[in-house]
Amino acid sequence: MRKCFNIISEIKEENDIYKDFEHIKKYAFLHFQSLYSEDKDQNQNLDLLDVVPSVISQQTKENLEAKITKEEVEKALFDMDLDKAPGLDGFSARFLQVCWPIIEKDLLRMVQKSQNTQKIGGSTNFAFFTLNPKEKGANTFSKFRPISLCNTG
């Protein structure tokens, strides 16, 4: 019964109703891409931040902007639950912890690169995405609650 409630059998998009998997997949992609995409003109409004009062101290700002250290990456990794949320390759935090002496330099380089470029590349930025209906008979994407299931990379 639960599976019948949760299955997406049709989607209404604009004035059309789609029942085949390929159209549903296409419109799901387009809907959530537009919902979660970065606004390209966002950088043009940075001067607005100059007139907004700061809610953090200069010291806190400097701490947040400081280069990430090996110790911080190691602490974050070793604070993870060992066998939760394996990556796409099936490796869990336990595997990464056991292999720490081998991967530490590469992992640190990857984390620091993402901090410098403000982008996370490859499958590191990958999550499983599921849609939970907000109500019975949901047939538009606005009636679903998206949930991301993240992994260790």
Briefly say what this structure is:
41% of the residues lie in helices and 13% in strands. By secondary structure, the protein is an alpha+beta fold.
Describe this entry's structure for a reader.
This protein is of the alpha+beta class. 41% of the residues lie in helices and 13% in strands. A two-stranded antiparallel sheet has the order 1-2. A two-stranded antiparallel ribbon has the order 3-4.
Beta-strand segment tally:
4
* Cα radius of gyration in angstroms: 21 Å
- As residue ranges, the low-confidence spans are none
**C-alpha geometry:** extended
* Largest sheet, spatial ordering of strands: 1-2
Largest sheet: 2 strands, antiparallel
Intertermini distance: 34 Å
Instruction: Please state roughly what percent of the residues sit in beta strands, choosing from under 5%, 5-15%, 15-25%, 25-35%, 35-45% or over 45%.
Output: 5-15%
Instruction: Give the class from helix and strand content and strand pairing.
Output: alpha+beta
Mean pLDDT across the residues is: 79
Helix content: 40-55%
- Taken in chain order, the helices and strands follow as HEEHHHHHEE
Q: Helical region count?
A: 6
Summarize this structure as a short list of keywords or feature phrases:
153 residues, alpha+beta, two-stranded antiparallel sheet
